[in-house]
Amino acid sequence: MYDNIDIEQILRTQRLLKRYVDCLKGIPNTCTKEGLKLKELLPDALLHNCKECSDNQKKGITRVSIYLMNCHPKWWSDLEKIHDPQGSYKASYQDTLKAQGASTPKETKCYH
């Protein structure tokens, strides 16, 4: 699942991106079918550093994470507070993002 989702289209469409973020924040009536599945899989992906993710899924997660951190830091912060309140996974995924070439805010194209 998620291997064929057009990540860039989601990032370019703020309404759609916000809907995914709101779904992951637990806001009622915001989840698409894919959003519900993502919300279900996210805890295990965080716990096991995306061990079960395909390479394409890892690339997508990296792209979305970098985009949210650099273009929508408030949304990213909100998601961290919900899905990593103790900061248990933060060092791990930050190392992973750096290893995969995480860009700086100046290098990230923000669509909106």
TrEMBL record:
InterPro entries: A10/PebIII, OS_D_A10/PebIII_sf. It comes from the Eukaryota. It comes from Phaedon cochleariae (Mustard beetle). PANTHER family: CHEMOSENSORY PROTEIN-RELATED, EJACULATORY BULB-SPECIFIC PROTEIN 3-RELATED. It holds the Pfam family OS-D. This is Chemosensory protein.
